[in-house]
Amino acid sequence: MNAAAGSPSANAPIRVLVADDEALVRSGFKVLLDLEDDIAVVGEATNGHEAVERTRATRPDVVLMDIRMPKLDGIQATAQIAGTRGLEQVRVLILTTYDTDDYVFDALQAGASGFLLKDAGPSELLHAVRVVAVGDALLAPRITRRLIGQFAARRQVARAAEERLAVLTEREREVTALVGQGLSNHEIGNELFLSPATVRTHVSHAMVKLGARDRAQLVVIAYRTGLVSPAP
Amino acid sequence: MNAAAGSPSANAPIRVLVADDEALVRSGFKVLLDLEDDIAVVGEATNGHEAVERTRATRPDVVLMDIRMPKLDGIQATAQIAGTRGLEQVRVLILTTYDTDDYVFDALQAGASGFLLKDAGPSELLHAVRVVAVGDALLAPRITRRLIGQFAARRQVARAAEERLAVLTEREREVTALVGQGLSNHEIGNELFLSPATVRTHVSHAMVKLGARDRAQLVVIAYRTGLVSPAP
DNA sequence: GGACGCCGCCGCCCGCGGTCGGAGGCGGCG
DNA sequence: CGCCGCCTCCGACCGCGGGCGGCGGCGTCC
């Protein structure tokens, strides 16, 4: 059973830790999981602190984590596990009744690999465990939908805003992009092999067309339209 | 068979349109889907234009869409369907061999409800069809993982960058936020009931502490740190 | 061909913005 | 108590940035 320790290789069982404050839930999961040949429950925890501690001790492949737990909630526990050296290989699968936005996004931010609602069927849970065990991720369909919505919304804003840039000439867009990165007129001139005076003209035109009074406001617009991205 | 038209109610079959340029793939899917009692293939298309046209004509619940297709690719076809009045209820499930980032993100942006890779098993396909039919969403695990990565990365950057703001005093953060929205010193003064001279002092201090030479660079930093958000 | 408009280029003027130094009040700390 | 940090305000200097007008090149339309 536990002969093959360490790396979760080919046909070694997936080692799972179950963290939930309700004993009934834990035993239910344990029975369900242990019925499978390729899955073995190697530990249990009744709160967040225990979950972290047991994870450190048993180094499971997957942690089945409830969110609502005493002492330390599942999200914070997930963050601690993800932030611990040596536990990078441990995948956390969140399992909860509530699917509040904050919970989901915070959990993913904390480093969770999956997020299931407790109304999911047993086969879905088993499938999810196997998926996250190999390093992939899986979300409840309802949550996937919202994550996609979030993602699409961001880009939607960018697309719509980009149309404002249509009035600019190529040169104007170019200098505006550089202005958006905080460069001075002189620096832009060096960058584009232009006289600073010329750069000024382009900047001025861009400001008029975009309704910016300031070069600072031009930077704002550059960011809002996605002409420059907040990332590095 | 086609007695129950219109709304996809309780036990009416899920009406599916299959769009793929390879006849073998189409017939394979058709056989697989038609074997299920609750799923019925109501049409086929061999390119993007046909897919849009057939969708308009048959109003399926779900469109199984390949990306690589002649005339019009699956992503553009998806965008057209999502943008057509009266077809809002039609869910698009992308099915492709390639999982390039651009494909995935563009497809979700275009309005797709799901994204499967062709190495998925038949049961996964059937499950996906049923999931998107009820309005939820489903992605291949590998893709879910990358989407989460994207999402988490954004917030990660924001979190890390916010620490740069720790050196600022409360007032300095305040004025910096307003500078980040493109306000002039005078306007900031009115906003915070301060003399413009005072505002200058705070702005100067903030610039020194954050290493900004310009007020424009201060705007850049304000955005990068998430002190102001690109959205509204 | 001339007229017009857009683009890219430049020089001049001046006001906003950024820097420096200073001053007064207020709260916390040794 | 004296010291320090923060907030507030002021005046002076000066350089960048923004407004304005002008000039040449290129394409379009008449």
UniProtKB/TrEMBL annotation, chains A, B:
Source superkingdom: Bacteria
Domain Response regulatory: 15-133
GO MF assignments: DNA binding
InterPro entries according to UniProt: CheY-like_superfamily (IPR011006), NreC/VraR/RcsB-like_REC (IPR058245), Sig_transdc_resp-reg_C-effctor (IPR016032), Sig_transdc_resp-reg_receiver (IPR001789), Tscrpt_reg_LuxR_C (IPR000792), WalR-like (IPR039420)
Residues with 4-aspartylphosphate modification: D66
Domain called HTH luxR-type: residue spans: 161-226
Pfam family, one: GerE
Keyword line: DNA-binding, Phosphoprotein, Transcription, Transcription regulation
Record PANTHER family: TRANSCRIPTIONAL REGULATORY PROTEIN NARL-RELATED, TWO-COMPONENT RESPONSE REGULATOR
Record's protein name: DNA-binding response regulator
